[in-house]
Each structure stands twice: as C-alpha cells, then as structure tokens.
Amino acid sequence: MKSDSALQQDVMAELAWDPSIHHTDIGVAVSHGVVTLSGLVRSYVEKMEAERVVRRVAGTRAIAEALKVRYPSDAKTADSEIARRILDLFAWSVSVPEGQIEVKVEHGWVTLTGTVDWFYQKEAACRAAGKISGVTGISNLIALREVPVAGDVKERIVAAIKRAANGDAQSVTVVTHGGKVTLGGRVRGWNERQIAERAAWAAPGVTSIEDNIIVL
What we know:
Helices cover 36% and strands 29% of the residues. By secondary structure, the protein is of the alpha/beta class. The strands form 3 sheets. Strands 4, 5, 6 and 7 form a 4-stranded mixed sheet that branches. Strands 8, 9, 10 and 11 form a 4-stranded mixed sheet that branches. A hairpin with a 2-residue loop joins strand 8 (172-177) and strand 9 (180-187). Helix 5 runs antiparallel to helix 6 (190-201). The radius of gyration is 26 Å and the shape is elongated.
C-alpha cells in the first residue's frame, strides 16, 4: 500500500506534469489516502482539471478540495501571491542581500527573518515588503550579524555631523561594547542627534544603539 508521503509526491508530480494546470499555487496534503488540495487556480475549468488529475493517481482514496478560483484580473492579495511579489522585489533591489531573508505571509501579515550584515539592508527589506498591495502589517525579525565594530565609529559620526549640520561634533561621545554603540554628549538640535544615530548605524558590526544624547 502506498504511503501518504509517497502519494503526496505522486500527486504533486502529476499536477506539475499536466500543462493545463498552473501548479505552483496549489498545495497538496495527504492523510490516510485522502488528498486535500488547497491554494489558487486561474479558472473553474482548471479547478475541475486539478481534481481529475488527482483522481487518476494510484492510491487516491478520496479528495477534499479547497481550491479557490483567482482570475488574472483579480487583485493579487492572496498570501502566496504577496510572498512571491515580495521575493521578486527583493531580487530587483540592490540593497537587499540575495538569499539571506525569508518571507512568511499569513492573512496579509508579513514576517521577515534571516540575518544580514548591515542595518540598512534590514530597513530596505521592510520598506520593500511594505510596498506590496495586500500587506496588512510587517514583523521585521531580521537579525544583524555580529562582527567586531570598526574602530573608527567615533570618527564617522563626527564627520557626518560636520558635513550635514556644521555642529559641534566633538561634543558627542561614543562607547562601543561588542555590537552595541552608546551615544552621549550634547548637540544643538534634533537633526544633529538623528545624524549621529544614522552615522552609527552605518558602521559595520553595529547591532544596537542606545542614544543618550541631550538636545540643547
């Protein structure tokens, strides 16, 4: 007797082999010989064809069909479609590292996981996901890879403040511990404080920032 896992593989292979079915959006589950189809098809005819294909696979005892018809003109807001469009957008973005971020979508809510080297890559992935229609929210759980913090973090922050605001950059203090940077001192405006934070995030190896800068 064919096992459920073997039957599942046979059904998936048969769906992929039939040219009349767009199989990538169809999910297959098997329990005690009962095949459950879920996901999306492009027409009612394709839905019926998927059932016909499954019935001809040896070992199929029954079919539980939960396929939904999604016409090409309909808005692409199904979870599987949202996930695919996010991954496509990642592939086109020079700021998102290839193959390092995983995407999960459940009822429109996107969860991003994985590990990247830079904070801007984490932010870029979140911004890209937010552009996709149908997204109801994002949990950005992407981690930053811990590497030794560059010794010139202080110099980077000082130079950034001078370039952008002509402020008293020397009044900013920088303490590093592992991947954590603690900022202190005084600046003349909120803009200079934000510049200091951005400069700190731009340093390689920074995984968290504690901003204790006082705005005068």
